[in-house]
Amino acid sequence: MNKKILVAGATGNLGERIVKALIKRGAEVRILNRKETDPAKTKKLTELGAEVIAVNMSDTQGLKLACQGVSCVVSALAGLHDVIVDSQTLLLDAAIAAGIPRFIPSDFASDFTKIPEGENRNFDLRKEFHKYLDKSPIAATSILNGAFTDILSYKTPLYNPNDCSVAYWGDNPDWKIDFSTMDNTADYTAAAALDSATPKILRIASFQISPNELIAIGEEVKKTSFNLVPMGSLEEFSASNKRERAAHPEGEKEMYPNWQVNQYLYSMFSVQNQPLDNNRYPDVQWTSAIEVISKI
């Protein structure tokens, strides 16, 4: 009998990929869909065989009914406090009330367990949710994938193919940064959702690469020289991020204000995924750095 998995946030970029990966692995998939969501966003998922449950995320009874009969709830919700803390808490409570044994929260990021409070707003929201999750009577697994490889195409100072430069913070240009593609993360998450005995944390990375290695690949792909740009200490970067956040309080209502983007860059040079759990599911085909960078 195929396992049935419930996915919240299925119409998002990562959530849709998780649904497709689950179906490819033979799972029955049920997705939560807000009643006001454009039906076109779920049409391609229903065509693949996913079951759609229209429910308001504040409807506790509706959420409980949606959770009935599934073996794991996967949250790919994205947002601020009202989503990551409030809505996820209601979803978690519904899963517990329905007797669901396992829950995968929307923790897809660098290892925020090692980042101090105040260094990353979005990580702090996850920590707040975990204060409740960790006391709950449900087996939960966080999947920490480092940074999504998409950031390499955003022309941040980290990797800027326009001016052929790679920047780094701290004193070590050989520091390895964790990167994962969304497809790899989704496939791994699908495998974990179908695995009945996952640990509390699974750490993954499509690849780990240093600024010096980024330069080498950039030069290979672009056929031109790249410059390595030191950006100062992590302590200075942290202080600058805090000043920018205080100066732009309007960003508290935005998912990715400039200071939040810089907070992510800070985290990438502050923590690493060690040890990696990539080999837990041998059929996941990990994307290489040169595959990603060649497409930018």
Structure commentary:
The model has no long low-confidence stretch (mean pLDDT 96). The longest helix has 17 residues. Helix 1 packs across helix 6, helix 3 packs across helix 4 and helix 8 packs antiparallel against helix 9. This protein has ten helices and 14 strands. By secondary structure, it is of the alpha/beta class. Helix content is 38%, strand content 17%. Strands 3-2-1-4-5-6 form a six-stranded parallel sheet, sandwiched between helices. Strands 8-11-13 form a three-stranded mixed sheet. Helix 4 links the parallel strand 4 and strand 5. It starts with a strand and ends with a helix. It folds into two domains: 187 residues, Rossmann fold (3-Layer(aba) Sandwich); 86 residues, no CATH class.
